[in-house]
Amino acid sequence: MFAEGLLSGRSLHSLCSTTLVKTNEFCKRVGMPHVFTSLRHATEKLLEAEYFLGRCMEVSGPYFQYELNAFLSASRNVTFVMQSSMSKVSGFSDWYAEKQAEMRTDAAMRFFLELRNVSQKQGPVSYVGGSTMKGGYTYRFVEDRLRLPPEVMGNDIRVSCAIHLVKLGTLLFDFFKDMPFDACPWRAFSEDGMKALDFEWSDVEAAVGLAPGWTNVDLPAEEKFKHLRKEIEPLDICAIERIASNDLRGDSGPLDFSHMGADGLIDRFAIHMADAGLRNNPRAAFLRSIGERINKIEGRR
């Protein structure tokens, strides 16, 4: 019996990869037209970006730049990996084209997507930082190779990164809601999934490495899928939904951005460092920022 085969310890391939087949040649040999897909690797990149954002909260000096570069790379790869994983999914091209159109209208998202190219190919990301009266450091992007969108100006870099991460989480969560069986093979292995994706039992057998005809037993379909799902790693949809809902976490727990408000001195410093006449003279840019800050304070009095 099918269930007895599982209980006797017969080896099944783990379904942890993005696609649940070994090679295209294998698919052709067994005549399997359907390839099961997963958002697993795109989710890993999302969680990787969250990890590096958490590290940005803990470090300062050159280490902040290292962690920021890592965040930019991981966050950019979320969409790269998603497109690669879902390239053969029916309807994905049109679905993603609509999302791309939305992202193009979002100046902050375009900025972050382009910032990764600067970080990887052109040199360090331009930013300034300084200590705050409340302790710790605050950082601002400096307009250099890329124009700063209004949503980024005056925000601590880590706050802007967090907002971008939530948008990426929302992108993955939207795809899961619209195409759950393409996003998660664990959910695809069900009667609803079989109907939606139009696959056969032979596809299932090939995907998990079972001999042809293994599932041809007198058991209800959902009972067969119940056993098969034990061999599949479910998509961590809870992590995707958590990030999409702005519940970001690090090693020490939820990330707290409440102390990262406006800082007039650092904001002025960032503005002056974007000035072509002061860009190569940070000392002069900082002194001018201090002078303007003093004048503003005295003017209030």
Structural description of this entry:
The chain is 57% helix and 5% strand. Strand 1 (127-131) and strand 2 form a beta hairpin. The strands form two sheets. It has a two-stranded antiparallel sheet. Helix 7 (157-178) packs across helix 13 (237-244). The protein is mainly α.
Largest sheet: 2 strands, antiparallel
Helical run tally: 15
> Which sequence of strands runs across the widest sheet?
1-2
Strand content: under 5%
Mean pLDDT: 83
Helix share of residues? 55-70%
Count of individual beta strands: 4
**Mass-distribution shape:** elongated
Uncertain stretches of 5 or more adjacent residues? 1-30
Q: Using the CA coordinates, give the radius of gyration.
A: 25 Å
List keywords for this structure.
mainly alpha, 15 helices, 5% strand, 301 residues, two-stranded antiparallel sheet, 4 strands
Layout of strands and helices, then pairs:
Blueprint: H1 2-7, H2 24-30, H3 40-56, H4 62-85, H5 92-104, H6 107-122, E1 127-131, E2 137-141, H7 157-178, H8 180-183, H9 185-188, H10 191-197, H11 201-208, H12 221-228, H13 237-244, E3 249-250, E4 253-254, H14 264-273, H15 282-300
Antiparallel strand pairs: 1-2, 3-4
